[in-house]
Specification:
The protein is of the alpha/beta class and 433 residues long. 42% of the residues lie in helices and 15% in strands. The protein has two domains: 3-149, Cobalamin-binding domain (Rossmann fold); 175-432, Aldolase class I (TIM Barrel, Alpha-Beta Barrel), CATH 3.20.20. The protein has helices at 18-26, 31-37, 42-50, 85-97, 107-111, 113-117, 128-141, 194-198, 207-220, 237-247, 266-274, 289-295, 297-302, 306-314, 333-346, 363-370, 396-410, 413-432; strands spanning 3-8, 56-61, 75-79, 101-105, 122-125, 147-149, 176-179, 182-183, 203-204, 225-228, 254-258, 277-285, 319-325, 350-354. The strands form three sheets. It has a six-stranded parallel beta sheet, sandwiched between helices. A six-stranded parallel beta sheet has the order 7-10-11-12-13-14, sandwiched between helices. Helix 3 (42-50) crosses helix 7 and helix 10 runs parallel beside helix 11 (266-274). The chain starts with a strand and ends with a helix. The mean pLDDT is 91.
């Protein structure tokens, strides 16, 4: 029986910088962000589902469990985001010294396959449903390639994607259990590499698939939050409404990532609330229209309606976690104060404020290289919170301090109490209506 280890390497929980990381980890009022990141590696669970049933599979999340390097495996599969890749290389080298074949996949391997191939025995650069079965078949025949790569990303029909092997993580105490209903996003933001990884076309599972997967999750994890980890889950409006009507019957609590345009369809928002939506992450990026123009033209058009839209969503009892990127080219001290004021006026359920991160594969990285503004830091600093570029209107240290100030202002006791009173009033309004 072949033995396969599937490993998610440990990376920084938040920033590698001590002060910001310590604040985000220890501040009680930032628990919602910590819970958002405490979820399984869905790519590895999908790999497990694509592996022949006679294989012995062990899932290891190094954030929660140490790797036993003395165990014997036929193959060690490692899935890495960019900030995990250096640890992934360390793990691969240790197992290679023991004569064990190593395979590295994930987002970083997809955008930097040649780099990863310098360490890993095999690289899976693309969607697992297409590439992993090809590798397994080749391995079993005794002859496999160094790099398995999609020729034209974004062609996979999501209807053939198997249910992830949720059963192999039953002894992990995750706060949320992740579900992906789609891949691809129609909004081509300059700092996002999703369109290169998954292609520009929005592809979606059927509602029947999604409901069956949610039922499976309920069987294994009663009372856990479900996180819809799609970049943008409600692109297909009518299918989404039908899905929400079915989710309502399941009695689950869930959170999702979406865009601000859901506020234009209050039937959708009401269905979200009725079906158990607790809160949503919405990428607003910046309160500065000039900054938005360089990030995404579609979001620039939405800018003037941000406050009204957030109020409409939260008015239905759904919290909004506003996601911002601070340190864009027009950001300075005045934009910092505008951002703090905007956050206070919107009474967000939570905030997620990060630095402009030049991920490999994103247009933003090429811009920073061309302008000579990319800082020479290891991949392990690509956490979203560490400063990796030279901002235009402040030093990198000042940018770091600005982000700390935004978080500390949001979590100040008087602001927390004010938001709590607003929440109570919203609940009263909902009951009365």
């Amino acid at each position: 029986m072949p033995r396969l280890a599937l490993i998610s390497p440990k990376g920084a929980d938040f920033a590698r910088d001590g002060s910001l990381s310590e604040f985000l980890q220890n501040e009680p009022r930032m628990r919602n962000i910590r819970n958002l990141w405490n979820s399984p590696n869905l790519g590895l669970l999908t790999i497990a589902a694509l592996t022949p049933s006679h294989w012995d599979i062990e899932y290891i999340d190094e954030h929660l469990r140490a790797i036993d390097f003395d165990r014997q495996y036929d193959i060690v599969g490692i899935s890495c985001m960019t900030q995990q890749i250096e640890r992934g290389y360390e793990i691969a080298r240790i197992f290679q010294q023991k004569g064990i074949l190593t395979v590295i996949g994930g987002i970083h391997a997809t955008v930097c396959p040649e780099e990863v191939a310098e360490v890993a025995d095999v690289v899976v650069a693309g969607e697992a449903e297409l590439l992993w079965p090809m590798f397994i078949q080749d391995w079993e025949s005794g002859k496999f390639k160094r790099i398995y790569k999609e020729g034209n990303p974004g062609r996979l029909d999501m209807r053939i994607s198997p249910f992830p092997r949720y059963d192999i993580i039953k002894d992990y105490n995750y706060s949320t259990i992740t579900v992906h209903t789609s891949r691809g996003c129609p909004h081509d933001c300059s700092f996002c590499a999703a369109s290169r990884v998954y292609g520009p076309v929005y592809r979606r599972k059927t509602n029947e698939q999604i409901i069956s997967e949610l039922i499976l999750i309920k069987e294994h994890f009663e009372n856990k939050y479900v996180l819809f980890g799609d970049d943008n889950i409600f692109v297909s409006r009518e299918e989404s409404k039908s899905l929400l009507r079915e989710i309502k019957k399941l009695n689950i609590r869930w959170v999702a990532q979406t865009d601000i345009s859901i506020a234009d369809d209050m039937e959708l928002v009401q269905l979200m609330a009725d079906s158990g939506c607790q809160w949503v992450v919405i990428g607003l990026e910046s309160v500065s229209r000039k900054s938005l123009e360089k990030v995404n033209k579609w979001k620039t058009k939405q800018h003037e309606n941000y406050k009204e839209s957030i109020n409409k969503i939260q008015g239905k009892g759904i919290g909004v976690m506003g996601a911002f990127v601070f340190g864009l080219d027009y950001d300075d001290e005045s934009v910092l104060e505008d951002t703090i004021q905007f956050i206070e006026e919107c009474n967000f359920y939570g905030i997620h404020v990060t630095t402009p991160t030049p991920f490999p594969g994103a247009r933003f990285r090429n811009m920073m290289i061309d302008e000579g503004r990319l800082l020479d830091l290891p991949w392990s600093y690509y956490t979203h919170w560490d400063v990796l570029i030279q901002p235009k209107h402040m030093s990198s240290e000042e940018l770091h301090d600005c982000i700390v100030k935004i978080y500390k202002t949001f979590t100040a006791e008087e602001n927390v109490n004010r938001r709590f009173q607003m929440f109570i009033q919203r609940q009263r309004n909902l009951i009365q209506s």
